[in-house]
Amino acid sequence: MVVGHMGSSNADFDKAGSGSTGSGSAGFDATGAGTVNSADDSVCATGAAAESAPGAVTGAFATRAIHAGYDPLDHGYAAVPPIYASAAFDLGDAVRGDALAAGNLDGFEYSRVANPTVDALEKRLAALEGGIGAVAVGSGMAAVSYALMCAGEGGGRIIAPSDLYGASVDALGDFLPQFGIHTDFVKDINDLNEVESKIGPDTRAIFAETVSNPSTEILDIEPLAALAHRHGVALIVDNTVPTPYLLNPIRFGADIVVHSTTKGITGHGNAIGGAVIDGGHFDWANGRFPQFTARQQVISDDRAGEWHSFAEKFGNAAFIKRIRIKYLRTFGAVASPFNAYLSLVGLETLPQRVSQQVASAHRIAEHLTHAAHVIKVNYSGLGYTPQYDLVPKYFPRGVGQILSFLVDGSADNVRRIIDGTRLFSYVPNIGDARSLIVDPAHITHREVPADARIAAGVSDNLIRLSIGLEDADDLIADLDQAIAGAYRA
Ligand SMILES: Cc1ncc(COP(=O)(O)O)c(C=O)c1O
């Protein structure tokens, strides 16, 4: 079955966590004996070549969403990726164990570093984003934190807007400084002059959301990536809100993409997860990132007298290798096989779900612009917003299922609208099959200081919606009755 092989050479193949790389998929033979599939598990000394192997991603998005990264032949012919609930893997025999531990053979050893179910998800996400590799982690915040720390480690600085998910603002402004990583916040991340004015000798990365939560501001990725690259700085983007179905930031120059898979990717509000995906284009040995050129014990072989740096050993795959081998292995925010399975199942219907949600979100946003007591609607997909010229370039399929709106009156009116809805669940999440409502100032951005909250457009009278799969007319009727009820004496 040809499709089963799609994407199998497009992900991060280091299962051993000791610097090994390979060129193929899981390496379990069809008998289930756990032996190495010789066709797939070739020995690869340099790693970088295997990570960059071209041509594996074929077919339209909807086809890859179902088939990429998983080959039933490697998993006992199971049509659906099985849940490998195994903490560790049999090393086979002494020769194989030695080769695995030395990083000379591709295969699984221990699920903190790699697991076959998680591996299928990683390959699929890499194939869907157009990256050379992915590492799935335990949450979106683990993905954000690992990516920012991996880039900023050792006294680096990040440039970011405050228009971000609350916990990311908290991480950048309050927590990462405790680890020596500082952030230069900008008012407008699309203002290239402002961003350039913040680039200094210690700047390592620019970080932003491709569509910000909750304001739905669109990131103009291409010129920002060009600016970053002129200075040898990496562009790291959080692509959670659009999902890879609506936008592939790597195509426009982003270097690293992070996701909360908790949202649209898994799509049913039933599993926390995250992922880091590497575009494979950035030169981590350009002089700004000493952690990539320093010799590192974990990928070296003291017995053989061989010492390596990540940049030298893994080339264009240095970042994603470092996320797995240093961050996942050390901090251990691992994705569980069960959650990875739920994400894989969710991904199968991502295009269909998101298409319907985008269509409904658009209708609801338009309806709200004419609704009583609504004073502003934030939805960049509307034809008259200042950013509308960016939509055809980045979002030909729509900007997403998140929108927010401001109402007149007091905090009491906001509370009454939320309490008055019958179909919307009052839930601090997005991208669910259910429609969700939340008051960000009190829930998702509660800890963010007032000035940063206002800069992110999160005022007390803001309500955020995440549109699900219910009938759009039913959702509109529900909002209408909740708003009307909230202003009744
Ligand atoms: C844009 C964005 N990034 C990251 C996160 C964090 O994801 P998680 O809750 O999976 O840790 C969220 C959560 O709401 C988010 O909206």
Q: What is the CATH third-level topology name of the domain at 349-486? A: Aspartate Aminotransferase, domain 1
Tell me the CATH superfamily of the domain at 349-486.
Aspartate Aminotransferase, domain 1
Name the CATH architecture of the domain at 349-486. Alpha-Beta Complex
Instruction: List bound small molecules.
Output: pyridoxal-5'-phosphate
CATH class of the domain at 349-486 equals Alpha Beta
Count of strand segments = 14
Q: Counting H and I runs of at least 4 residues, what is the number of helices?
A: 18
- Report mean pLDDT, rounded to a whole number: 88
Mind describing the biggest β-sheet?
A: 7 strands, mixed
GO cellular component, one term: cytoplasm
Pfam families: Cys_Met_Meta_PP (PF01053)
Modified residues (N6-(pyridoxal phosphate)lysine): 263
Catalytic activity: L-methionine + H2O = methanethiol + 2-oxobutanoate + NH4(+); L-homocysteine + H2O = 2-oxobutanoate + hydrogen sulfide + NH4(+) + H(+)
Architecture overview:
There is one protein chain. The protein is an alpha/beta fold and 489 residues long. The protein has a domain at 349-486: Aspartate Aminotransferase, domain 1 (Alpha-Beta Complex), CATH 3.90.1150. Helices cover 34% and strands 14% of the residues. The chain has 18 helices and 14 strands. It has helices spanning 48-51, 61-67, 94-102, 116-129, 140-152, 166-175, 192-198, 221-230, 243-246, 290-293, 310-314, 318-331, 337-348, 350-369, 391-394, 411-420, 450-455, 472-486, and strands at residues 133-137, 157-161, 182-186, 203-209, 234-238, 256-260, 274-278, 295-301, 306-309, 374-378, 402-407, 425-426, 436-438, 462-466. It has a seven-stranded mixed beta sheet with strand order 1-7-6-5-4-2-3, sandwiched between helices. Strands 10-11-14-13-12 form a five-stranded mixed beta sheet, with helices on one face. Strands 8-9 form a two-stranded antiparallel sheet. α2 (61-67) runs antiparallel to α4 (116-129), α5 packs across α12 (318-331) and α16 (411-420) crosses α18 (472-486). The longest helix is centred in the C-terminal third of the chain and has 20 residues, at 350-369. It is globular. The model is unreliable at 1-55 (pLDDT under 50). Bound molecules: pyridoxal-5'-phosphate. Pyridoxal-5'-phosphate (PLP) is lined by residues 139-141, 144, 165, 167, 209, 213, 238, 240-241, 260, 262, 272, 274, 430. Pyridoxal-5'-phosphate is lined by residues 139-141, 144, 165, 167, 209, 213, 238, 240-241, 260, 262, 272, 274, 430.
